[in-house]
Each structure stands twice: as structure tokens, then as C-alpha cells.
Amino acid sequence: MRGEASRDQAVPILPYLAIATTEVIGAAAAMTLSPRVMHWSPSVWLIDLRPTRDYWTMQAQRRGIKVAALLQMVWAEALGHGTQTESLVFASCPWQALLLNAHLNERSLSGPLELREPFSQALLRQLSWPVWFAVARDYAAALTQSKSCRFDEQRFHSDLNHLERAVVRLGQQHPAQMVDAKHQAFRRRFGEHIARLWQWTFAGVAEGVHTAATKQAAFAFAEEEVFASGFPWVQAVVTTRPGVVRQLEYPVWSWDQLVADFTTDLDLLADLPALASGAAVLRLEWILHLEDLSDCLVNIRFRHPHSLRAERGEQKTVLIQACHSFEAVYLQRSKDASWIAPAPLIGWSLVAASCLARPSTAISLFGEVGAAGEDMAAAMRIDNRLQIALERYQVTSDWVAEGAFTKAGAGAKDSDVAGAATEPAAKPWAALAARRPLYIYAEPRVLGGHETPTKAAFIERTGEVWWQKPEGTSLERNYFVIEHRSGQRSWATRGEAGEWWVHGLFA
Questions:
Q1: What is the torsion angle, in degrees rounded to the nearest 10, for the CA atoms of residue 249, residue 251, residue 257 and residue 262?
Q2: Is 345 exposed, middle or buried (CB count within 10 Å of its CB: 0-12, 13-18, 19+)?
Q3: Angle 314-315-321 from CA coordinates, rounded to 5°
Q4: What is the count of structural domains for the chain?
Q5: Is residue 315 part of a domain?
Q6: Using an 8 Å Cβ cutoff, are 316 and 385 in contact?
Q7: Are residues 368 and 413 in the same domain?
């Protein structure tokens, strides 16, 4: 339960980023923020931040700045201070990021901008039709490049010209003037692709502006593969991917037989120039070569960018994940009814399939300095080793006791790093919240008479959410740290009859 006086928690950074730059940038350099990048046009890069969003959120929290500001700083630092970046635009779908990016360039404005902000939404509503049509033609070029079998380029441009003539006849200057036009009407008149672009344009921009269908489309990008939504994502590729090849001296069947050679190959991979420069791995492709001349692909994935060089000689994180994946993929084949026994391994190829580039100019930004940085690095290592994701919690500046902590991460509301807890007016609440236990019961539990605490120390007095409680409820609560005979410390409040109510437990 939270009090109305608590400040809003900002949602995580939006997943798609469009960056315009006047410099010529290669795919490897563009992968500074995420391994999923697309070269949309000669001057615009489109970046899918979903693989690294949690990582950047944690980095920004440690530095006490907003995620958007950190990404702008990392991009500029990694590409050199001389690089001129006209605009950075964050949006919930790629199309909106591209539209707003083009609009900023037309008006000679700079970012970073997040489309959830009122100012950014107002800018999108001021978008002109010529800019919309120009980005739509880029969309057609991207669809042609993706070799989509369902795309008729000639028909698309004919429909687009039809829409341009209609806009001129209606005297419309901005797409926002037609915001009430339905997706189905666009589809009947101008075809499937233009209707899809129209559906994306204002999806989720402001309450009441879009229909339920367009709002659902906005969030489809965060839950599905972007190509499945119809957007022509063409992944930029680097010329070579770092990798090593192993030819075994004798066939092997089990993990114990191969782990020593596999660890050696991980160290060799870490020493290759592409990774020795500081790049971190998000996915390894381990291609097992079997004696029957078939191959078996084992994907080794990490929730956060992982440095092979940091664990050189040990490689514990990769070995844990590789062991699970090996058992799930290779050994599972022996259970197939068509197999009498799995074919033995005679070698493998190990490739860094997805990396986060970290050039030497930006390494200092990633250093985990101090106790907070060490704790964060340790949490990411543990998260990379586990089969299920860790849940992180953080202090919030909430005057209601139950709201002292909130879940952190991309899947939940997260203080946008420079959030309420660091504002001067909220510092007293944040100080109190830091003294509360992390484990808090949903409802206080009465302490039996035989469990009288041996010590009790007053720590805070807080108000009650009286307007949500039955009439006659006390307007305030006094909290104590009490100690039981067992040595366990609890966070407790005292009732009107003098009884103790335990609300939380200290570690």
C-alpha cells in the first residue's frame, strides 16, 4: 500500500533509440549501446536496447544520472568527442523514434528525447506530412532490402502518392490533424503497409488520442520480435565474428570430458583482438561437431554483458551456463526414440555471436569502482549464472511504511535514477526508508504474549493512510526495532492496547 504523497516512479528507458550523426560510423562502433543495431539510412542508426536495458539502468543508478543521459555520454565517448550527434530519440516502437528523429533534424533541434515526455509528444504532434512521407519512403527501401516476399514496392509508392494527393485536397499540414482516422479506413484506401505506418504513428502517445488497437500495437514491439510486427528490421553485421575452432584428439560424450578444453578455448577467445579491447559478450554460439558429420548448436546466453577477460583462467560464469545448455541440447538428443546413443563429439566451433562493443575510449565509463560498483558487478555475475532472473529492490522515498521499497528493473517501475529519492524534499523519507527492513509483511502480525521482546528502540513515527481505513483507525504509527530472545531483530509497531505488531524482519 502506498500513500498518495509518494512520488511517481519513472518507468524504464524506452526500448528503441534512433540516433542521427554526421559522421561515418561502422556497425562495430554502433554496437556500443546494444548488439542489435540497424543502419536505417546513411545518417541514422536504429538501436534495439532490449538486450542491454537492465544493464544500462543499473549503470545509471550507480552514477546517479538518467539512463538517457548516460547513453548519450557513452555514445559520444565511444565514438570520440569530435563526433556530432544531432539527435537521440527513445520510443516504444522504431517507427516513432524515426519520425521524431527526422522532425528534430528538420527543426535543427537536439536530444535526447523520450517519447513518454509531454514535450516529445507535442513535437510528434507537430510533425509535418513531408517528413512523414520522407520516412515512409525510407521504410519502403528497408522493406525492399529485407527482401520481404509480401511487399510490392511499386504498389506501395502508388498508394503513398494517393495519400499525398488526399492530404493536399483536404488541406492538412500535420498528421495529427487526422489522428481520429481509423486504421481500417487507411487500409481500405491506401493499402496494408501505409495503414500499419499510420497505426504506429500515434500509438500510445497520449491518453485518449489512440484507440485500444493502436495502443496494443505500441506495446507489441516490447513483447515480440520486431520483424513479426511488420517492421523491416535488417540487422547490421560486422565483417567477422571472433571465434575459435577445436579438433579433439579423441571422441567425447560427457561434459566432464570436454570442460578442460572448453575452458582453454574460452581464454583463447578472450584474447582475440575483438574481445581484448573490452567488448562484452551477450551470446556465444557453441557449434558441436559430431562424429556422424552432423552439427549441434548450443546457445549460451547472458542476461547482462559478460567479460570473458574478467574471468580468464576460470570462466565460471560461462561454464555454468554452458553446462546447462549442453545438457539441455546435446544430451537431450539421446532421449530421442530414433537415437540408440548420442553421436560423440569430435570438435567444436565457439563464436562470440552477440557482443556489446566497448572501445578503449569508453572503458572508464564501465569501471566498477567502489563498494556500490562491486555489489552491482557481483549481482550481474550471479544473475548471469542463474537459470532464473534475480529480483532487485531499491529504496523509495515513500512516507507510508509499506512503500519503503520497490522492485527495480526493466520489467517493473524503476526510479529513473535521478528520481524522487534524490530530490531535496524527499531526502528525509529516503533516510527513513533506508533504515527499514527489506523483508516487510503484507500485513502486520501480532506478537504473542510469550514472545515479549528483550529490547525495543524507537526509530520513526509515520502517518496512516486514514482515508483508506475504517473510521476510528489511529492516524499515526510508531515503529521500533525490537530484539527477540533468539537474537532476531524485527520492525514492529505497538497497538493501542500495548500489544506488539511485527511488520518486517531485519537480516
A1: 60
A2: buried
A3: 140
A4: 3
A5: yes
A6: yes
A7: no
**Residue 7 domain-assigned?**
no
What backbone phi and psi angles, to 5 degrees, belong to 344? Answer: -70, 160
> DSSP letters of 278-340?
S-EEEEEEEEEEETTS-EEEEEEEEEEEE-SGGGTTT-HHHHHHHHHHHIIIIIHHTTSTT-S
Q: Of 174, 188, 345, 337, which is closest to residue 256 (Cα–Cα)?
A: 345
Residue 401's φ and ψ, nearest 5 degrees, are: -60, -40
Q: Quote the cell numbers at residue 500.
A: 506488539
- Where does a domain end: 338, 354, 384? 384
Residues 440 and 494 in one domain: yes
pTM over 0.90: no
10, containing H or E segment:
none
Which of residues 229, 264, 291 is at a domain's end? 229
Half-sphere exposure of 327 (CA within 13 A, CB side): 8
Domain that holds residue 25: 16-229
User: Rounded to whole angstroms, how far apart are CA atoms 135 and 59?
Assistant: 33
Asked whether residue 43 falls in the same domain as residue 192, the answer is yes
Alpha carbons 161 and 180: distance in angstroms, whole number: 21
Q: pLDDT per residue over 269-327, tens digit each?
A: 999 987 877 788 999 999 999 888 888 899 999 988 998 988 889 899 999 999 988 88
Q: Does 2 reside within a domain? A: no
Residues 220 and 301 in one domain: no
